[in-house]
Structures are given as structure tokens and as C-alpha cells.
Amino acid sequence: MPRLGLGVWRAKDGEETENAVLAALEAGYRGIDTASLYDNERSVGRALKASGVARDSVFVTTKVWNNEQGYAETIAAFRRSLERLDMDYADLYLVHWPVVGKYKDTYRAIEDLYEQGLIRAIGVSNFNIHHLEDLMGSCRIKPMVNQVEMHPLHTQKKLFAFCRKEGIQLQSWRPLMQGRLELPLIGELAVKYGKTPAQIIIRWHLQIGAITIPKSSKGQRIRENADVFDFELAPEDVVAIDGLNENRRFGADPDHIDF
Ligand SMILES: NC(=O)c1ccc[n+]([C@@H]2O[C@H](COP(=O)([O-])OP(=O)(O)OC[C@H]3O[C@@H](n4cnc5c(N)ncnc54)[C@H](OP(=O)(O)O)[C@@H]3O)[C@@H](O)[C@H]2O)c1
């Protein structure tokens, strides 16, 4: 699984998503994160075909949306996603949110699809520790990934440690706080390392062991966000960024979802 991928939430279906995916593939990205909800799976599939990059060298993630959860519903939702992507398999399929009363049946369907060879890796998203414990109490295949909101203002230390202990890879969504990059420490580090604030934050995600999926629709930012492999943050700078944590979410709290 590539450690850095492109997120495409809120990239419009059509040219915007296609151009972003093409720019990313050209810049060397080999991971794309979409979802049934994002309504742009068709464009992801089209861009991948147009790029000429081999299907098996790209890692495509998609997710089952909340109103598609349940066993039979998930099997059907997955088939619709594959059809829109115009692919024979997905690399990673996630339960998008822990819909109470549904997520276990949803995950059981995903396990079956995995066993049929239609998905290369399976997991969940927005699961807190208690959701994971509950699921792991009955699932056959432990989730391989948990994709959650994580960034310098919400470092998810406890959840991260739990996932690490259980061998579940943590993947960070909203890694750039949706572009809220004006934190003084990040600015200072940008000067120190001669990098941009976004690059400092993405590098922090990678150095703490997260897999991350920053979103941009702009070619220049897509390239900027991937230009993070030529420097390393000193351990004390990683710790300093950890210290920015305020347990502050910009997205929904998985324990209180109403969608
Ligand atoms: N599992 C879930 O529930 C869930 C929830 C939310 C998101 N996600 C996934 O995670 C991905 C990333 O999260 P996100 O899209 O919410 O937020 P994000 O990646 O933290 O931030 C994206 C925003 O930051 C801007 N940006 C990107 N690079 C920048 C740079 N170098 N400098 C300044 N601004 C920059 C983008 O604007 P431009 O596009 O204009 O450049 C966009 O508005 C999503 O696209 C999606 O794939 C998953």
C-alpha cells in the first residue's frame, strides 16, 4: 500500500477529478482514495485508463456509504462501485462510518468479497477503539486499515497506539486540516527545512507511521504534496508537532453521526 495517496473528496466528477488523478499519477502517486459518496469513481477509473499506468501498479481505495450498509446492500454497493470504476477488483474497501446496528453485517459482506478475490485489502474508517473491539469480537478477518481524521490538531494518539498494537494500519484523512496551514510552529519548521507548511505536515504523517491521502485538485499542489521524500524532520520536531494536539476535529465525531 503506498504511504502517500491522493484523496478526491469534493473533486467534481468529470474533468476536475480526471485531471487531479492524471496529475497525481504523473507526479508519482500510486494511491487514490475515493468513495461511493464522492460521486467521482467513474472519473478515477477513466483517468487511470487514460494515464497508461498499469492497473496493478495503482492502489485504489473506495468505501461503502452509510445508506448502503447491511450484508446484501454492501455486496450490491461494491458491485456498483466496481462498475463505476470500471475495474475487476478494488485494492482496499472500507466501511465508511460505523453505522450502529449495521457495520458488522457490512463488514461480513466485505470479508466475503475479499475471500472471493474481489478486494485486495479490507478495513474500516472512522472507527474508534470501542468500534474496533466490538467488530474484532466477531469478525473473521481483522481490519487491515482504519482511516480516520488525523492531523497536528487531532493526533489520535490512543487510537493510533491501539491500531499499532493490533496490526491495523492507520490512515489519516484531512491530513492538511483542509488547508488550515497557518500554525506558527509549522511556519517556523517550513523555514528551517526550506519546505512548505503542507510538506512539513505530510512529512510528519509519514514519519509517525501513518499512511496519508492529502487532497488537491491543483496540479501544482498535487506535486508539492508529494515532494516530501528528500528531507527528514528531526525527532524533536516530530515531537513538537505532536504537541500541537488539541483533540480538535474538523469533521464529524464517529460517536455522534447523523448522516
Ligand atoms: N473516510 C472519511 O470519512 C473521510 C473523510 C474526509 C476525507 N477523506 C479522504 O481524505 C482526503 C483528504 O482529506 P480532505 O480532502 O478532507 O482534506 P485535506 O487533504 O486535509 O485538505 C484538502 C484541502 O486543502 C487544500 N490543499 C491541498 N494541498 C494544499 C497545499 N499544498 N497548500 C495549501 N492548501 C492545500 C485543498 O485545496 P485545493 O484542492 O484547491 O488545492 C483542499 O481544499 C479526502 O479527499 C478523502 O479522500 C476521508
From TrEMBL:
Pfam families: Aldo_ket_red. Residues 3-246 form the NADP-dependent oxidoreductase domain. Transmembrane segments: none annotated. InterPro entries: AKR (IPR020471), Aldo/ket_reductase_CS (IPR018170), NAD(P)_OxRdtase_dom_sf (IPR036812), NADP_OxRdtase_dom (IPR023210). The keyword Transferase does not apply. Keywords: NADP, Oxidoreductase. It comes from the Bacteria. Belongs to the aldo/keto reductase family. This is Aldo/keto reductase. It comes from Cohnella boryungensis. The lineage of its organism: Bacteria, Bacillati, Bacillota, Bacilli, Bacillales.
